[in-house]
Amino acid sequence: MIEPTALKRGTTRVGLVAYCSNGFQSVACFRLRKIEIRPYTTEDENNVFCIMADHKVIVFGGNHHNTLGVVRSLGEKHIFPYVFLVSTLKSSLVLKSRYLKEGKIFKGHEEALEYIIGHFSNETHKPVIICTSDQASSYVDLYYDRLREGFLFPNGGEQGRITSLMDKEKMINLATETGLNIAKSWTVTDNAVPRDIEYPCITKPL
Q1: Taking a C-beta distance cutoff of 8 angstroms, is the pair 6, 38 a contact?
Q2: Are 139 and 163 in contact (CB under 8 A)?
Q3: What is the side-by-side order of every strand in the sheet holding 5-8?
Q4: pTM, whole model, 2 decimals?
Q5: Residues near 68 by Cβ (< 8 Å), separated by ≥ 6?
Q6: pLDDT digit string (tens) for 183-195?
Q7: What are phi and psi of 128, to 5 degrees?
Q8: What is the C-alpha to C-alpha distance for residues 145 and 50, in angstroms, rounded to an integer?
Q9: How far, rounded to the nearest angstrom, does the alpha carbon of residue 153 sit from its chain's CA centroid?
Q10: How confident is the model over 87-138, as pLDDT tens digits?
Q11: Cα–Cα–Cα angle for 135, 129, 9, nearest 5°?
C-alpha cells in the first residue's frame, strides 16, 4: 500500500481528497503556488472532511469494486455521495451500499454527464466529482469546458489533455523528455513477439 501523503501549499487549507479502494490515499490542495509533500496527518483529515461537508460529492464510474471502495471510504467519514454508474446491467451491488445518498445507472457516459450537469451545476458550493474508471476520467476530461465553472474535479488545465496523456506512448515520450528513467518498451501490433525483446517483461494491453 502506498503511504498516504498530503500536498500543502503555504497556509491554504486542503480542498479535495483522492481515494482508492482501501481508503483515502492522498490530499490535493487548490489555489497554491508552492507544493510541499509531507506525511498525512490527523489535522489534514479533520480539515478535509470539514471542508468537504459543504460540497456534494459525486462518484462517477463503473459498476465494480473500485467504485464500491470509494463509496465506502467516503461513507466511513460520514460523507454520503451521489453515485452514478455506467453499466449495461439494470442493478448493481454498488447501489446497495448503505453509504450512498442517491444512485442511478446510465447506459453511457455522455448520458450520465448530461444528467450531472443538469442536476448539480447550480449548487452554492461546487460539487466534487470523483471518477473511478479510466473511461469516466476521460469523459469528464472531454467535458472540461462545460464542467469547469460548476464542479471541482481532477483536470489537466484544458479540455482533452488527460485523455491525450492516457496514450502509453505519449507517457513514455513525456517521461523521457523530463529526464526520468523508464523501462524499455515494445508495441506489438501483429501478434508477433519482437526479436529484440528482453526478459523478464510485463505485458499491458493498450
Answers
A1: yes
A2: no
A3: 14-20, 23-29, 5-8, 36-39
A4: 0.71
A5: 21, 93, 94, 97
A6: 888 888 777 888 8
A7: -100, 130
A8: 28
A9: 8
A10: 999 889 999 999 999 999 999 999 999 999 999 999 999 999 999 999 999 9
A11: 115
